[in-house]
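Hi U.,

Before I forget, here's the chain from the pilot set. I'm dumping it here mostly so it's searchable later in email.
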Amino acid sequence: MRMLKKLSIAAIGVALSAPVLAEKEFENHTVMMDHGDGHLMDMTGGMVMGQNTDTLPGGCDRIAATKEITVHAGHKYAKKFPGRMFAFDVQEYQFEPCTKLTVNFINDDSVRHQWMMHGLPKYLYPKGMFHMEVTGPGKISGTLIFPPGDKTYLVHCDIAQHMEKGMKGQLKIGKGSGDLPSIPGVSAYVIQDDYWDTRSVNDEMDDEDVAESNATESATVKEPIVENESLFSGITIIGLAIGLLLAPLLARKFKDMTAAEIVSYIFELLQIGITQVIKLVKGLISLVSKK
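Structure:
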């Protein structure tokens, strides 16, 4: 009886752990609903936006070439780029102008990834964008036709921080228009990673160097300037004192007056004050000019 109980508990444990241990199924997104304007989507996390399989961009008399590529996205492709978290398996592509390209996008991670381009002609691609997206392990395919001209396009994942963490590349049409910044393995990062540890420097310095460094820092440290603070405090105190003195007089003056009358009276006082200041300035100017 005791043995049967143990076997039952073991069976229940295996049954509960089986879904956790099972590998997540790879999904091939081939049946998607067409929402118009090249927007394809299904309910399981697959999406293509801006697909164009047959309309030629302006300036293209014909399709120059028909190409197909497979793009992988995942955490494992970032291992060759220190400090990066996500990446595509390839960071640079190059095609002729007016090429018809089919992209097979494969997500190797258990999170959502995208492969998207910006800057395409808006009259043909809504918002100038071609976009593919897969949630979890899966594959999706989309097609577009490149415009004419030499240009370099950014291809990237637009999920928050995925591009900053390394998931981006560049696609050159014709000769391209130069390299884009911060493309892993292609161009220098705009903001370099800084792993400098100041403690290691102090560990390598002997006691004399540390003492000299501290003395230099002490000598260069200046006392904070407090003149402006003192001036501000003095003006504030004077203003408060004047306000306290005038408050009872103004209270009696404004008693039984409406809001409109109070505003009118204040503007009248301001006008008189400005007039007196102008007279004073004119008098000073006249006095100086005579001398």
